[in-house]
Amino acid sequence: MNEPVAYMERTRRYYEAQGFANAYAWARFDDVPFSPLAKPLAACRLALVTTAALYDRDESEPRHVASAPVAHPPARLFAGDLSWHREATHMDDRGSYLPLEALGELVAAGRLGAVAQRFHCVPTEYSQRRTRDFDAPELLRRCRQDGADIVLLVPL
Question: Quick check: is 44 in a domain?
Fold first, then answer.
């Protein structure tokens, strides 16, 4: 039987092994930027956000927010430059990190209003400052541009 991945402990050990002087500092926000839904889920437009990438990046390439149409998604996304448990999962099941078909079923069943016309890929950076100051505001801008009421974040 497979055991859950002890992600937080693995991250602590990884940083220690890399010789960082300070332990990894998990992001913490005393004021959480979430709010109750203003309308029923069946009337909401959902933006899908994943940490996978649209293209197979080289580790030296800068990462940035990218978007693509949900009407014609690529057959697969990429994550070769990211750290993830390759024995516990794989990139062959697109539905596990880009669940467009499952969301379409929810729309067809009337449980979800709509899926935004684009999905978004966000970089996973070790810099909380870069995420907070650059990537998150750009993602928010795109989601608002798409008319999204809610966002589903799907980490790899």
Answer: yes
- With respect to residue 143, please indicate whether it lies within any of the assigned structural domains: yes
Residue ranges making up the domain that contains 102: 33-154
Tokens 């926000």, located at residue: 29
pLDDT for 86 beyond 80: no
Please give the Cα distance from 116 to 150 (Å, whole number).
Answer: 10
Higher pLDDT, 13 or 79: 13
Report the number of distinct structural domains present in the chain: 1
In this structure, is residue 116 part of a structural domain? Answer: yes
pTM of the model: 0.80
pLDDT value at 111 more than 70: yes
Confidence of residue 75 (pLDDT cuts 50, 70, 90): confident
Q: Two tokens at 102?
A: 């499952």
List all residues 6 or more positions away from 147 whose beta carbon is below 8 Å from its beta carbon.
45, 116
156: pLDDT strictly greater than 80: no
Two tokens, residue 107: 């729309």
Q: Does some domain include residue 86? A: yes
Number of other CB atoms surrounding residue 39 within 10 Å: 10
44 in Cβ contact with 37 (< 8 Å): yes
Closest CA to 48 of 92, 104, 126: 104
